[in-house]
Amino acid sequence: MSEQNADGSAGDADYGTIGAGYSSYRRPDPRIAEAVHRALGDAGTVVNVGAGAGSYEPAGARVTPVEPSRAMRAQRPAHLAPAVDATAEQLPFADNEFDAAMTTFSVHQWSDLAAGLSEMRRVARGPVVILTCDPALVRDFWLYDYAPLVLDTEARRYPAPGDIAEVLGGTVTVERVPIPADCVDGFNEAYYARPERLLEPGARLACSAWSFVAADVQESYLAHLRRDLESGRWDERYGALRTLPHWDGSLVLIRAVP
């Protein structure tokens, strides 16, 4: 059984503490949603594991969300199905109960990756779809020059796509998903062209990796970024990113079919 925090959060981050304003900064981006929904195909029933506030759940399917955190379950909009209180490692469903299984920005939170992936494969007849980040690409982002421990944390926590594919088996594809310049899903790389947003406490709080870095260290990182933005040094080094309509970062979509 996976360990849980006081609010029920499974894994190493306590969403009772960091998830209060999550839905304000982490909204589903329609262009990323299109990629997720395309991967799900025509699935009529979908289980969404680590469902959080409901991002990327397909409107045309009957979705069963699973979310262990009370804080995150409470942020689900009224028009979405209420989430089942359970963890990825122990899904309370029958074998092959769903047409498909999905999870977005969640696998790095699980205490037992192989168990969670095996459970997703067990309950889904068709595709298992995972939106996550490739740890081999995480440090390629400019933020590594300002907040190295934040991205070191992300790289440590995200499982490699090859490891995910090995557990799921079957036919697996890994697709890099372009990140739009005006992405409304505020993970760190969503601000590749809007560095000022990362000075907002809510934006950082919605990216769990920041919670693993001591407050004084965070302040030194932010001071560095703020200085470079005010002096123009950030724009001298990275300003060309402001003109890119999208960026190929570490975001990947993994799809496995039996």
From TrEMBL:
Entry keywords, A to Z: Methyltransferase, Transferase
Domain spans labelled Methyltransferase type: 49-125
A GO biological-process term: methylation
Source organism (scientific name): Streptomyces hoynatensis
GO molecular function: S-adenosylmethionine-dependent methyltransferase activity
Protein name: Class I SAM-dependent methyltransferase
InterPro entries: Methyltransf_11, SAM-dependent_MTases_sf
Pfam families named in the record: Methyltransf_11
